[in-house]
Amino acid sequence: MMQAVRFSKFGDPEVLEIVDLPDPHPAPGQVRIAVRAAGVNPSDWKKRRGLMDPELPQTMGYEAAGVVDEVGEGVTDVAVGDRVFGLSASGAAQAELAVLSYYAPIPASLDFPAAAALPAAIETATRALDQLGVEDGHTLLINGASGSVGSAAVQLAAARGARVIGTASPGNHDYLRSLGAEPVAYGEGLAARVRALAPSGVDVALDVAGSGVLPVLIDLAVGAGHVITVADFGGAQEHGVRFSSGDSGRAVYALGQIGELIESGRFSPPVTRTFPLAEVAEAHRAGEHGHVRGKLVLLVR
Questions:
Q1: 67: closest CA among 111, 24, 13?
Q2: Which residues contact 68 (CB under 8 A, 6 or more apart)?
Q3: Which of 56, 129, 225, 266 is most enclosed, with most CB atoms within 10 A?
Q4: CA-to-CA distance for 226 and 254, rounded, in angstroms?
């Protein structure tokens, strides 16, 4: 048996429990890890509130980092004892043991918390950049550029040769500059501030924050077809903008490519704020109610 995060009713963070569950085992092509750290995402509190899956009980966690302790049939690219990070298709990574469906070796310079902060952010960012067709010479506007997905998108777009303009609160502008973006404040007057940097508008725009700015992004990018949101499902439907989700195919190849960018100094993982696994409810409170820069990570052992 292993300890894992689970909830048996929807509600506030207090419904989260640490329970004993049977050890999972990998299917062909999967690996099992002894989890050292697991990422916490906004989708976690949406699940907990009953906004995603209706069934109960539910386990938690889509991303983790740890040490391989069992490999499924056909796995030849990693071995027991290797440090890996990746995505759990079963949504059960906040546990002592987790099965990863998609995984890659942890870059040598990263510890487990930093590695656990990567999978969801870099997959989401890469998928959106691919769907927008971001390439060398493009100007990309990112709404909500200082969070974990936004900061990943800034750096991944810059690595492709794009010019990046990013919205953030003024306190995060120096941080965005350090990542290679030109910062602008969000809020009223956003369009004018962007046009001061890019008079003819931008080629494409990515909404990570979901703060009701899709009409402004459509205007700046000259059409809804040049805008993608990963955060505003209702707004996407209303304004004819593509909502990017993993249902349309995940950019899991990004896991295997990020190591080279990190080791060459072209990608900095988000700063992590860590909590012991037993304090998962406190991590949820911090994420839901605070503007956390960087990434919340649970330490498992």
A1: 111
A2: 31, 32, 33, 78, 79, 80, 81, 82, 83, 84
A3: 129
A4: 22
Complete domains list, the chain, with CATH? 2-118+269-299 (3.90.180.10), 123-247 (3.90.180.10)
Structure tokens at 151: 């900061």
pLDDT by residue (tens digit) across 104-160?
999 999 999 999 999 999 999 999 999 999 999 999 999 999 989 999 999 999 999
Largest CA distance in the chain: 60
User: The tokens of 57 are what?
Assistant: 């009980």
DSSP category for residue 95 = B
- Measure the CA–CA gap between 251 and 214, rounded to whole angstroms: 24
- Average pLDDT over every residue of 239-243: 97
Give the burial string for 259-294 (b: 16+ CB within 10 Å, else e): bebbeeeebebbebbbbebebbbebbebbeeeebbb
pTM attached to this predicted model: 0.95
Spatial distance between the Cα atoms of 295 and 116, rounded to a whole number of angstroms: 9
Collapsing DSSP states into helix, strand and coil, what is residue 273?
A: strand
Using only C-alpha atoms, what is the Rg of the chain?
Answer: 19
